[in-house]
């Protein structure tokens, strides 16, 4: 039996339409990069070599094997990118500006040391010594750097170096453990150099549950009380081991918003560079019928692109080709860029003028309201996360200076918002009017108002001597004694 022959394709037989266009489209898609993903698997963190001692497996890698598996199932994309990846983000301007602006505002006005004993000369001398010691230790710069680390890596760690102390033992605030002159330095430590040496993962009711009791710092075990840890964006317990007990990094939170801003900025730049598009109407019947893969068509386009300029010359087929110039409207680009910047500001909790330095436009535009809200948020951050480590530093400084802790000495965070001279004068005027009303009503005595003015550093009369007794002024009666007037040197006296 003869095998049936396949029907031959005739020369004039119609070929599948669109085959050439599909081949040309596939050729144009070659080299296209896939969309960026912002999800990371939940897994044990990768440690830098030497962080954990040789031959010692960090408990963070083994104690929570089951939580890793459970978290990986429940949060397939909620993992930790790693400190190396976050360090790369720290080299980009947008992330550095977020961290730098927040840390700078956090420490800009700094601290004011106070004493409950207002008239205590001894406390005043102690405060002067404490201020000098804080400057020597450069506490302000250490806190600022730690705040930047918290933004970059999700964790700030401040190491307290006590001369002659065993780093693995708890820091006990006592004159017997902290000798005079033993407080040598304060060092902010990046999160990449530390990992937990042990923590409680058994009793959720315990105060140290999922809180490392000690850390490995490049192979050395350091007690948590000597390596103070601040996490301003904490994570749920189930994710803490995967993040190496760091919080959520501001850089990781802001990365999609920053990338969106960069794409918008680049798109606007590309649009301005190519806002005028030239369309060439030419014969495409061979490509549409599948006889051509588009090679000649792309060559034609490349020829036009190469010669396109104000002085270039393009030859066209007068019967089958036509050039059309299409200009893209440029309105609304400013709003698109501003919206992308606002999205970055929202995730960082900063007004645009703080993050970018750009003031709002318009006749009556002002950022005072947004700045006041931002300052209130900074004040809340100071009290919630930074007061406790600063109080520890203050106590260690007192033990190192005086051999004891004065419970009357403390500190307050200086408000970021500072009044203008006019606002201060208006407030003093209102206070003086209220004082006069209270004195007239017999509520307070003038001496009490005088003492308040002497104690208030913003009153303008803080140097008043309250021990001097003032003579009340004599109210005029309307009757004057001529003799008294002459004796006082007034008038010409009686004449003959």
Instruction: Supply Rg.
Output: 37 Å
Q: Specify the structural class.
A: alpha+beta
Q: What spatial form do the alpha-carbon principal axes imply?
A: flat
Cα end-to-end separation: 169 Å
Report the portion of residues in β strands: 5-15%
What is the tally of helical segments? Answer: 16
Count of extended strands: 10
**Count of discrete structural domains:** 3
Catalogue the unreliable spans.
none
Share in helix: 40-55%
Overall mean pLDDT score?
Answer: 81
Short description:
The chain is built from 16 helices and 10 strands. With about 500 residues, it is α+β, with helices and mostly antiparallel strands. Strands 3-2-7 form a 3-stranded antiparallel beta sheet.
Which secondary structure elements does this structure contain, and how are they paired or packed?
Layout: H1 19-29, H2 59-62, H3 65-74, H4 83-89, H5 93-107, E1 111-115, H6 121-137, H7 139-153, E2 156-162, E3 183-189, E4 194-199, E5 212-217, E6 220-223, E7 227-230, H8 250-273, E8 276-281, H9 285-289, H10 295-307, E9 322-327, H11 333-348, H12 352-355, H13 368-402, E10 409-413, H14 421-440, H15 446-455, H16 482-487
Antiparallel strand pairs: 1-10, 2-3, 2-7, 4-5, 5-6, 8-9
Helix pairs in contact: 5-7, 5-8, 6-13, 8-11
């Amino acid at each position: 039996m003869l095998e049936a022959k396949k029907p031959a394709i005739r020369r004039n037989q119609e070929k599948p339409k669109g085959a050439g266009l599909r081949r040309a489209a596939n050729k144009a898609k070659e080299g296209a990069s896939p969309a960026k993903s912002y999800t990371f698997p939940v897994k044990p963190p990768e440690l830098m070599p030497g962080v954990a001692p040789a031959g010692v497996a960090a408990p963070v890698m083994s104690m929570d094997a089951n939580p890793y598996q459970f978290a990986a199932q429940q949060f397939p994309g909620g993992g930790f990118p790693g400190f190396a990846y976050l360090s790369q983000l720290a080299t980009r301007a947008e992330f550095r500006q977020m961290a730098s602006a927040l840390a700078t505002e956090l420490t800009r006005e700094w601290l004011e040391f106070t004493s409950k004993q207002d008239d205590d000369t001894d406390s005043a001398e102690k405060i002067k010594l404490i201020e000098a010691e804080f400057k020597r230790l450069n506490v302000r710069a250490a806190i600022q750097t730690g705040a930047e680390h918290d933004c970059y890596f999700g964790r700030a760690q401040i190491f307290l170096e006590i001369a002659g102390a065993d780093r693995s033992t708890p820091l006990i605030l006592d004159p017997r453990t902290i000798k005079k002159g033993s407080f040598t330095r304060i060092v902010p430590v990046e999160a990449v150099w530390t990992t937990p040496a042990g923590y409680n993962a058994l009793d959720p009711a315990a105060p140290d549950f999922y809180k490392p009791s000690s850390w490995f710092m490049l192979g050395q075990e350091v007690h948590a009380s000597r390596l103070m840890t601040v996490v301003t964006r904490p994570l749920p317990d189930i994710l803490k081991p995967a993040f190496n007990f760091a919080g959520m990094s501001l850089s990781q939170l802001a990365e999609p918003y920053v990338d969106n801003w960069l794409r918008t900025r680049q798109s606007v730049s590309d649009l301005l560079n190519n806002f005028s598009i030239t369309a060439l109407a030419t014969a495409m019947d061979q490509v549409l019928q599948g006889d051509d893969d588009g090679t000649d068509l792309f060559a034609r386009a490349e020829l036009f692109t190469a010669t396109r300029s104000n002085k270039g010359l393009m030859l066209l087929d007068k019967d089958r080709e036509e050039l059309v110039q299409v200009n893209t409207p440029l309105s609304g680009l400013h709003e698109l860029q501003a919206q992308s910047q606002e999205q970055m500001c929202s995730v960082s909790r900063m007004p645009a003028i703080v993050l970018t330095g750009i003031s709002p436009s318009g006749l009556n535009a002002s950022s005072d309201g947004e700045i006041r809200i931002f300052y209130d948020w900074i004040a809340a951050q100071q009290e919630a996360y930074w007061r406790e480590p600063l109080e520890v530093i203050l106590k260690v400084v007192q033990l190192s200076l005086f051999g004891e802790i004065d419970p009357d000495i403390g500190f307050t965070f200086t408000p970021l918002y500072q009044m203008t001279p006019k606002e201060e004068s208006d407030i003093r005027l209102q206070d003086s009017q209220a004082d006069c009303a209270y004195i007239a009503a017999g509520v307070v005595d003038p001496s009490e108002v005088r003492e308040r003015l002497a104690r208030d550093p913003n009153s303008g009369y803080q140097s008043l001597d309250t021990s001097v007794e003032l003579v009340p002024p004599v109210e005029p009666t309307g009757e004057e004694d001529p003799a008294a007037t002459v004796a006082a040197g007034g008038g010409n006296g009686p004449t003959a």
